[in-house]
Amino acid sequence: MSGVVHVIGAGLAGLAAATRLAAEGRRVIVHEAARMAGGRCRSYYDQQLGLTIDNGNHLLLACNHAAIGYLARIASMDALVGPQDCAFDFVDLAHDERWTLRPNAGRLPWWILAASRRVPGTKALDYLGGVRLLTAPADATVVSVLQSQSALWERMWKPVLVSALNTPLDVASARLAAAVVRESLGAGGAAARPRVPARGLGPAFIDPALAFLSARGAEIRFGARLRGLRFLEDRLISLDFGEETVTLGSEDRAIFAAPAWSALELVPDMQAPTEHCAIFNAHFAVRSPEKTPLLTGVVGGMSEWLFAFPDRLSVTISAADAFIEAAPEDIGERIWREVAPIAGLDVAQVPPMRIVKEKRATFAATPMQDALRPKAETRWRNLWLAGDWTQTGLPATIEGAIRSGERAAEFALRP
Ligand SMILES: Cc1cc2nc3c(=O)[nH]c(=O)nc-3n(C[C@H](O)[C@H](O)[C@H](O)COP(=O)(O)OP(=O)(O)OC[C@H]3O[C@@H](n4cnc5c(N)ncnc54)[C@H](O)[C@@H]3O)c2cc1C
């Protein structure tokens, strides 16, 4: 195959595809609508805070093999940090209680027999309910299969699954939840170890990928918004960028790695998720006290996960649509009142803050929306789809986006 591969979208799906293709020596042109790469996974300088922040804190797990492979390819393996053993610190605001969830490394989950490793107020038998999740039918919701009136629900399943799925759990897909649990906790604590890009998303995932592409002669066109696609019989023949039309030669191929809403607009007869859920992040410009863990799960409040970076404290709230209209200062102050005591800081000293609302952070991980996700292959022999919204078997995650990009690249590499 000697033609060019055009990649539409420089989010993680597009960058995974582009770097894979470039690594194989293919000629690649990436077309990105925005002025910067990264899509929903990006860092930027915030004038008001005087800090570089991420659009949202991102948590990965040691089992995210595609993400780790991508980081290895772009020489960014040291970007992810986290504990040697599987350990998740939690705080329950309502009961003023702290604990560390410590699953053992191996597949046999003996940790549920050790009170010091499991969630306080739970019994070993409670955890067996997780089997119902793993065997749930495709149309089941999380709440319909897990016991939602228990300490284990409030203190483990709810905080873990609402952030993994970014969807209210009464409507969220049990099958997608099971996919996450199967690959992480289900494979043993070693697989579930938390991993955080502590120096930021851009330095970890985006900047090294752009450098990798440039070094291999790939072209990256920013401000290039795809506006139309033209087809002839079973082939894509041109890409319309408004001021410019790119004609595809007989050997040329394309990977569409823009979000679902762009696919619905541009790709004929497209079926794709139509509903999305919001994520809020509150970034506080304050030095994190040394003893604050990198990551703390927060239960019994509005905050969900507290990330302690050297130059800021950042809080994530998933499935945050209920707060979309709320004034940022009100949300920020409420969150600060919850997290300042966790970090041992003065509640009265509210630091400069930035609230980032990502309205369409991920597709709503419901059984119905999951059923709308398309495969990578299209009916055109030189066009493939990628993105966290395609059929990855996972909810919308970095891992899913990267897997989808790798898969689309595999197709584009075939003779
Ligand atoms: C706040 C937040 C927190 C998150 N937290 C986590 C987490 O903790 N862990 C985790 O694993 N995942 C998390 N995610 C999800 C993760 O960020 C996404 O799944 C992933 O980044 C999606 O990558 P993508 O390439 O599929 O899509 P996108 O990042 O949306 O990339 C698509 C790209 O296409 C471009 N584009 C759009 N239209 C066009 C067009 N017409 N022409 C050309 N280009 C176009 C866009 O500008 C964009 O750059 C989070 C997401 C958000 C928003």
Layout of secondary structure:
Layout lengths: L3 E5 L3 H12 L3 E6 L10 E4 L4 E4 L5 E2 L3 H9 L6 E2 L6 E5 L4 E5 L28 H5 L7 H4 L5 H15 L8 H10 L10 E4 L3 H15 L3 E4 L5 E5 L2 E6 L4 E3 L5 E4 L3 H7 L9 E9 L10 E5 L5 E5 L2 E6 L10 H16 L9 E11 L3 H4 L12 E3 L12 H16 L2
Parallel strand pairs: 1-2, 1-14, 2-10, 7-16, 14-20
Antiparallel strand pairs: 3-4, 5-9, 6-9, 7-8, 11-12, 12-13, 15-18, 15-19, 16-17, 17-18
The chain binds flavin-adenine dinucleotide (FAD).
Flavin-adenine dinucleotide binds next to α1, β2, β15, β19 and α11.
Explained architecture:
The chain has 415 residues and is of the alpha/beta class. The protein folds into three domains: 4-43 and 201-274 and 366-413, FAD/NAD(P)-binding domain (3-Layer(bba) Sandwich), CATH 3.50.50; 104-192, no CATH class; 279-359, Alpha-Beta Plaits. 27% of the residues lie in helices and 24% in strands. The chain has eleven helices and 20 strands. It has helices spanning 12-23, 65-73, 130-134, 142-145, 151-165, 174-183, 201-215, 260-266, 328-343, 367-370, 398-413; strands spanning 4-8, 27-32, 43-46, 51-54, 60-61, 80-81, 88-92, 97-101, 194-197, 219-222, 228-232, 235-240, 245-247, 253-256, 276-284, 295-299, 305-309, 312-317, 353-363, 383-385. It has a seven-stranded mixed β-sheet with strand order 8-7-16-17-18-15-19, with helices on both faces. It has a five-stranded parallel β-sheet with strand order 10-2-1-14-20, covered by helices on one side. Helix 1 runs parallel beside helix 7 and helix 2 crosses helix 11 (398-413). The structure holds flavin-adenine dinucleotide. Flavin-adenine dinucleotide binds at residues 8-14, 31-34, 39-41, 55-56, 58-60, 225-226, 257-259, 262, 279, 281, 358, 361-362, 387-388, 396-399, 401.
